[in-house]
Amino acid sequence: MGIVTLTRSAAGKIAVTFPYSPDFVAKVKSIPGYRWHPENKSWSFSHTDEIIDKILKVFESEEIRIDPALKRSIPNEQSGAPVAAREATVFQSRPHTEAHGVNNLEDLRREMISRKYSHKTVKAYLYFNRDFLSHAGKSSSVISESDVKNYLLYLAEEKQSATSTLNQAINALKFYYGGTLKRKFLYEIKRPRKDKKLPVVLSQEEVAKILTSLDNVKHKAILMLVYSAGLRVGEVVRLKPEDIDSKRMLIHVRGAKGRKDRYTLLSESALKVSSEYCNRYKPALWLFPGPDKERHISIRTAQRIFEMACDRAGVKKEVTIHSLRHSFATHLLENGIDLRYIQELLGHKSSKTTEIYTHVSNKDLMKIKNPLDQILGIKGGGGI
Questions:
Q1: In this structure, what CATH number is given to the domain that contains residue 306?
Q2: Which alpha helices (H) appear in 213-252, and where do they start and end?
């Protein structure tokens, strides 16, 4: 979205600036004591360590630049020795330097960009490496295997992170210490056992209720495209009008996960609603633009649309907008579509990823006669 910059104002306050974003505005307003200065388009706060921590916390997943004048030392929880506060959570203006002994990770960012990693992956790897250095309170040059193990224990025990999060953290640390700094100890770090969780799937009736609960044609078009094409939420928000191929009844998904392009299905129903939306609003650059027409709507906005639709439809399952993608795949499987085709439509690299839907499909389970019903002679039942 943009870089959040913290500087010290002439009045001795903390000045916060960033490119306009409704999400960023909401975050900064969640911090008490803010003031907006329209003349220089900045926000200000009292200069205290507590406020700095709160700002860094609400923007922890974003790129941050911080004026060295705002930094201070805090005690290490274990030794009591002073370490650089939050140095690992910020970007410095000058690359390849170390302030207070903590690397600014600019070399990592440059390496990932030069190797054409996606923006999302760059952002995630930088986050985990900053968070790790902040947790260790050391320079990257003196990091040891025990520091890595302690950080992973912290993620697992204190933050209750999922296995996927732990694996992403390991990937991020291995890329930097193993790939960029050529440290070998990281390859001895064991990965956690994977959670064997099944996706939550909506029935076709529930999907219909969710989609018909919406009156806003833009919102309806978004959710219909997600379900009918099996799109990831990041894919639907980045669609452009030219990606909708109405002649071939296909959707061109560009630069998806793994920087892969693919084609997936375009349903007649989704095309009808999308055409109605386009005729009314005339989108240009993005199919679903945000308040700033030069930017697409945010992923969080799409998620909120889905949550609102579930509330209106009375769907109580613990689902997210990604559940529409899971449901699309499961319903295709139940309709007899071969897993290889479903894999292509979803853009899965491995068939093992697609095979998870065989565990949630009721295609074969519905053929099984429950022994309790046989004993009691029950032929059919009602819902709960």
A1: 1.10.443.10
A2: 217-229, 233-237
